[in-house]
Amino acid sequence: MFEEDMEVAIKVVVIGNGAVGKSSMIQRYCKGIFTKDYKKTIGVDFLERQIQINDEDVRLMLWDTAGQEEFDAITKAYYRGAQACVLVFSTTDLESFEAIPSWREQVVAEVGDIPTVLVQNKIDLLDTTDIKNEEAEALAKKLKLRFYRTSVKEDLNVNEVFKYLADKYLQRLKQQTAEGTEAVHSSSNKIGVFNTAGGSHSGQKLSTLNGGDVITLRPNKQRTKKTKSPLSSCNLL
Ligand SMILES: Nc1nc2c(ncn2[C@@H]2O[C@H](COP(=O)(O)OP(=O)(O)OP(=O)(O)O)[C@@H](O)[C@H]2O)c(=O)[nH]1
User: Which of 47, 29, 46, 44 is nearest to 164 (CA)?
Assistant: First the structure.
């Protein structure tokens, strides 16, 4: 479907109140680890992982935004250019559940209706929850979002969340391609393909990564035919 040697890169923002497990989820997915310590995210972190969806190489760039209000101004800027979104609340934090509609509104206001999932994390602690299953499901239905229950601690359903998003994103991309849409977009909230040549993004300008104004499609000269370990492409930037 896509030209050979093209690589699809998707900027995914992981959003939700503080301490719901956003950083842990990204670490689990990209590095395969879980730590009990809570270290509040300051501003924004970014990890990446490469996966294959139907023989297509997809690079997921996972942006970890702080859930704390004091970082609002910084994190808002990082929504720009997001192409998929994980909205997370915690099984043990009713407020984080109640905050989901406003997080969703904020995302839609910044980047439009991008592929999004609703995630209830920490389901290993279901015994202590004040959030009823039916309520969570009703919210997902109301927001028209796929709903996953995860335990980052037990490594439950984390892969599924990101696979679903990548799938959904590719479907939309293919649909646009089939409709003859240009793959170069001038608006940050449209679907596009990043030029990922160069491997790590640390040298790139943030304006490009952030969905600055232009997302271009170019050959990725660094791509090899070798099969990579899924965890080998994780870089902490
Ligand atoms: N029991 C349990 N604890 C978890 C799970 N996921 C994360 N935690 C713990 O929850 C705490 C907060 O996790 P973080 O990943 O730092 O939360 P965050 O959402 O990134 O927090 P901010 O950076 O403040 O936005 C940590 O102590 C984690 O170890 C889980 O699935 N189960």
Answer: 29
Residues in the chain: 237
Whether 205 is in the pocket of ligand 1, judged by its Cβ within 6 Å, is: no
Spatial CA neighbour of 9 closest among 206, 215, 230: 215
Q: Is the CB of 24 under 6 A from ligand 1?
A: yes
pLDDT by residue (tens digit) across 102-120?
999 989 988 999 999 999 9
Centroid of ligand 1 to alpha carbon of 14 (angstroms): 13
Rounded CA-CA distance 121/89 in Å is 6
pTM value is 0.78
Residue 197: pLDDT band with limits 50, 70, 90:
very low
Cα atoms found within 13 Å of the Cα of residue 42, Cβ hemisphere only: 1
Contact 231, 44 (CB under 8 A): no
Q: What is the distance in A from the centroid of ligand 1 to the CA of 218?
A: 37
Q: Which structure tokens are listed for 149?
A: 């229950």
